[in-house]
Amino acid sequence: MRHSGLLDKEVAGYRLISKIGSGGMGTVYRAYHPSLKREAAIKILFQEEFSDRFKNEASIQSSVKHVKIARMYDYVTLPDLQCIIMEYIDGDSLDAYIRKKGKLSSKETVSVLRQVLSAIIYLHSRGIIHRDIKSQNFKIQKDGAVKMLDFGIAKDKDTPRFTRHGFMVGTTEYMAPEQFNNEVEKSSDIWSLGVMTYEMVTGYLPFEANNQIELRNKIYNCIYTKPEILASDIDPALLNFIEKSLKVNPRSRITAKEALLLFEPYKSKISEKKKTNPFKNITQNQKFGGWIILSLFLVVVLVLALSKGNNTIPGKQEKEQTNSNTQVNKNADDLRSVKIDVPGVEDARIILENGQSIKLPYEIKGKNGESVSFTIKADGYKEKRVEMKINHRRNSYDYNLEKNN
Q1: What amino acid positions are annotated as catalytic residues?
Q2: What is the dihedral of CA 155, 161, 164, 168, to 10 degrees?
């Protein structure tokens, strides 16, 4: 069975319904098993050179059982396919959710963060480092529940060394400084979580640049705009966590357990607000007097409203014009340029969907959230098929190519 045209086909008893997305090693499909009456997400390997890494992903994910981590159902090897069958999570990726809302409130961010931290504490207690903590690897459901996905580059004590010297794994904008040297530890996940928290409360990534050299320099030196400059209403506990997680020295960073403790007072504060009765210490006469004052106030408001009739509200026209201009500017800002490159490969070229072949680096233009597909080729290397969405928080993507045997 070829990887193209898999929709509506059956894999291990599951019928592939729709394509969810593609990653570095495989494509993920939404599927349904009619006998089990169960939906699932099935990740199918399409790059055979990553077979051992794919098996490692399956091994690690099958070993974890946590309410905030997507469950793995099965690992299936067919004559021409390797598949990881896992729990289907209905909801938005956290990345899409942030993009849709612009940024999250402190209350919502704390809720997401507490759930993610509980999953990371569990993994770290088992000697597992995720290595790819980012908003794209979490889903948020309608009830606010968060699930961790994708163990494609996770590492435990039994994981062999897959990455050749001089290469690195991970998503650059979220990577801790030590990851660029292929040195990874538990605190690397905390750095990435700090980046993700910054992204949630501001709508932006802390480290962005026009090229990889500048980006790495910012990460190495921890140069970023303070989040309170971009959003003035961030809870102090979140500012504290971001500061304690984005430390260049891994040993100076806060641990996942320590981080969770930062938000215990926040949780208690919210609970107390819900339980407090504002009329608890007010006498019956005081209550009655309060109702009289409130009634008089409502009468005054009603009289003023009637006296105005249909008169135009001052400033309304200007406000509507401002909103209109803001929308125009927003639409203009949606058009992005994203640079594609393969560092170290001089003759690399991009093959666009229309068949046009262009030497890299090359800038793809499109609207925020728009899906684009292309192929990267170079003499002496295996071609790489890429499917990606233009993201207003990233302006460059660097890819690695595998050499032909």
Answers
A1: 132
A2: 10
